Amino acid sequence: MNGQTRVPAEVVQALRDAELIAGRDTVEAAIDRVAVQLAVELADAYPVLMCIMNGGLVMTARLLERFDFALQLDYVQVSRYHDGTRGGELTWRVEPALPLAGRTVLVVDDIFDQGWTMHGVVAKVSSLGAAQVISVVLVDKQVDHVRPIDVDYAALTAPDRYLFGCGMDYRGHWRNLPAIYALPSNPLTAEPT
DSSP letter at 165? Predict the structure, then answer.
């Protein structure tokens, strides 16, 4: 344990200053829509849902609640942010455990931002012999640069701001919020992503 007994003031202030981007009802309706689309594609595929931890946990759980067909669940843990707000090099902590050769794999994450995390996971899953790899995210951030990969499905789109809630974090906090928030866009009060 780190000895921390209080929520850091900057974490509390981040939520106070944040703008609501998508409320709980909007998030749930968007996940409903994408889950129906995915169910049509995956129902007969006996897929593996590959959760990208920790951010993809909420989206994976919401999809699992909505799927009524046989599947298997696995996860990977990779990081570019390391509880910060700026992405860095992709670090692998946990690689896939299930055999993926010949399987359809649905890779699930919270946000599609720079695209490097999804790119790395899709490449890893493909290298392990997956017959088909499909990607889905809760949020596709509308960025103004080319990404190394496209995402197949996104429940929501959001502006190019630092987002948190619904699995996305602010310095390791607020993943548990049922809505999506953005830090202020003023460069003097928020770090860019």
Answer: B
